[in-house]
């Protein structure tokens, strides 16, 4: 297994849970995502992007890091470029840190949908802001290591079929969830959360209790 951490430009709260999740990962930074490196205690092996959101102080602080510079007018975001680079370098598992929040809702949507698309090709991918984390749901059964009382929602990108949820305050058994339904929002973990999905594209977003450090 080759685990990669990609630093993105969204919000990030450093927690002991996140530090444990990224342990042993190789690191890439996408543009302003480099600002999270110090708090996480990591040194990226590559810094890439168009650098339109990197200030001069950050550029000077990490001037020793290898860079790949792209034009502002390009067909991919810096985050997507970093993800492709991770796979080029042999990643079998990717953590996108700083994948939520910030000023760009469109980037958050991209990160969620990009992760679901990669998961459907068989790749392991996970997103986190420290405060929130997201795991794509693949067909079949998926178990989650989430503390009791964690708030979670399942976001569907299309109609979901044969969906079951166990170990939650509001379980479901083999239901169809129409696209746009709020049925799978705001649930809570009770114990050993498990989700089974028969069809459709979805991602589970959770807010485990944080212990920021």
From TrEMBL:
Domain of life per record: Bacteria
Gene Ontology BP annotations: thiamine diphosphate biosynthetic process; thiamine metabolic process
Keyword ATP-binding among UniProt keywords: yes
Manganese found in the keyword field: no
GO molecular function list: ATP binding; kinase activity; thiamine binding; thiamine diphosphokinase activity
EC supergroup of this enzyme: transferase
Thiamin pyrophosphokinase thiamin-binding domain ranges (all copies): 140-203
The enzyme's E.C. designation: 2.7.6.2
InterPro entries: Thi_PPkinase (IPR006282), Thiamin_PyroPKinase_B1-bd (IPR007373), TPK (IPR053149), TPK_catalytic (IPR007371), TPK_catalytic_sf (IPR036759)
Key words, A-Z: ATP-binding, Kinase, Nucleotide-binding, Transferase
Name this protein carries in UniProt: Thiamine diphosphokinase
Source organism: Pseudochrobactrum saccharolyticum
């Amino acid at each position: 297994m080759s685990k990669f951490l990609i630093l993105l430009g969204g919000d990030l709260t450093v927690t002991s849970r996140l530090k444990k999740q990224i342990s042993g990962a190789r690191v890439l930074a996408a543009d302003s995502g480099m600002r999270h490196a110090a708090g996480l205690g990591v040194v990226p092996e590559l810094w890439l992007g168009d650098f339109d959101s990197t200030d001069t102080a950050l550029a000077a602080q990490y001037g020793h890091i290898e860079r790949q510079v792209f034009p502002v007018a390009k067909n991919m975001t810096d985050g997507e470029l970093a993800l492709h680079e991770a796979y080029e370098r042999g990643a079998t598992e990717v953590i996108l840190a700083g994948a939520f929040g910030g000023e760009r809702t469109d980037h958050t949507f991209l990160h969620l949908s990009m992760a679901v698309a990669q998961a459907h090709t068989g790749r392991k991918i996970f997103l986190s802001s420290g405060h929130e984390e997201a795991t794509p749901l693949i067909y079949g059964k998926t178990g989650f290591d989430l503390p009791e009382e964690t708030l979670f929602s399942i976001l569907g990108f299309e109609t979901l079929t044969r969906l079951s949820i166990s170990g939650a305050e509001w379980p479901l058994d083999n239901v169809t969830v129409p696209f746009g339904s709020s049925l799978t929002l705001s649930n809570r973990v009770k114990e050993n959360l498990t989700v089974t999905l028969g069809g459709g594209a979805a991602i589970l977003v959770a807010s485990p209790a944080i212990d920021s450090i």
